Amino acid sequence: MDIDAWVWWLIGAVGLGIPLVLTAMPEFGMFAVGALAASVVAALGGGIVAQVLVFVAVSVALIAVVRSMAARQRAGRSTHASGIDALKGRQALVLERVDGGGGRIKLAGEVWSARSLDGEQIFEPGRQVDVVDIDGATAVVM
Predict the structure, then answer these.
(1) How confident is the model at residue 79, as a pLDDT?
(2) Residue 123 and which of 15, 70, 74, 86 are 20 to 30 A apart at CA?
(3) Judging by beta carbons within 10 Å of its beta carbon (0-12, 13-18, 19+), is residue 85 exposed, middle or buried?
């Protein structure tokens, strides 16, 4: 029983698809697509050299394109601050006198306990302050 080359390429494509599913490594999928392309070349009567060249060219091209797209996607992600990191650098309104010992501010619509960064500095109610850090549940302001 003589099996045609295109069938071997299909078997190779399926064989490369299995580790793709098991390991979630996309490179195996790209090699599987390269094997499918080589299978088409073999079915159309291309020689072994043409089949291997198509397999390599398609696989390498897919890896290059997908990796560059992934790198662009990673670079394009904006780093949105969340949680307490999003509060640093914001302005707040002093509700109760803030000094090195404590006080109250309104920050992002919520009332926070606060203390001044410089223990000697005092902020009176109604004044705008900048939040420089969050220490536990206390905003450090200046």
Answers:
(1) 67
(2) 86
(3) exposed
